[in-house]
Amino acid sequence: MNILEVNKVLSNKARIDILNWLKVPEENFPPQVNVPNFDDGVCVCHIQDKTGLSQSTISHYLTMMHKVNLLIATRHGKWTYYRRDEESIKRYIAELLNEL
Questions:
Q1: CB atoms inside a 10 Å sphere around CB 20
Q2: Which of 9, 4, 28 is nearest to 71 (CA)?
Q3: Residue 10 in 3-state DSSP?
Q4: Beta bridge pairs of residue 42
């Protein structure tokens, strides 16, 4: 894991908000239509709605977060769902503590 790359991704309030919302998705997002629960994450459309940002901006943010392993993406048909990669987040925190 590259700490500097993760830090760059985390240097944006909207991306931090997304991670916080995904921590407890059932409290932060409406029920999903195509999947029965939040096990595979939250649909991009719900994340976009909550942020109020454009679809292209949210897609870019989620791709960035996925590339540094903060998020796990799962496809269901034409829809992509994102959830936190808790193990990777724990590794990042441990490496950050080790470095500082």
A1: 11
A2: 9
A3: coil
A4: 82
Angle at 49 between CA 44 and CA 53, to 5 degrees: 90
pLDDT tens for the chain, 100 residues: list them: 789 999 999 999 999 999 999 999 999 999 887 787 898 999 999 999 999 999 999 999 999 999 999 999 999 888 899 999 999 999 999 999 998 8
φ, ψ of residue 23 in degrees (nearest 5):
-60, -40
* Distance in angstroms (rounded) separating the CA atoms of residues 81 and 44: 6
Coil, helix or strand for 63? Answer: helix
Compute the distance between CA of residue 18 and CA of residue 22 in angstroms, rounded to an integer: 6
- For the chain, the first-to-last Cα distance in angstroms comes to 16
Rounded to an integer, what distance in angstroms lies between the CA atom of residue 34 and that of residue 57? 23
Kindly report the backbone phi and psi dihedral angles of residue 56, in degrees, each rounded to the nearest multiple of 5, phi listed first: -65, -40
**Cα–Cα distance between 74 and 51 in angstroms, integer?**
20
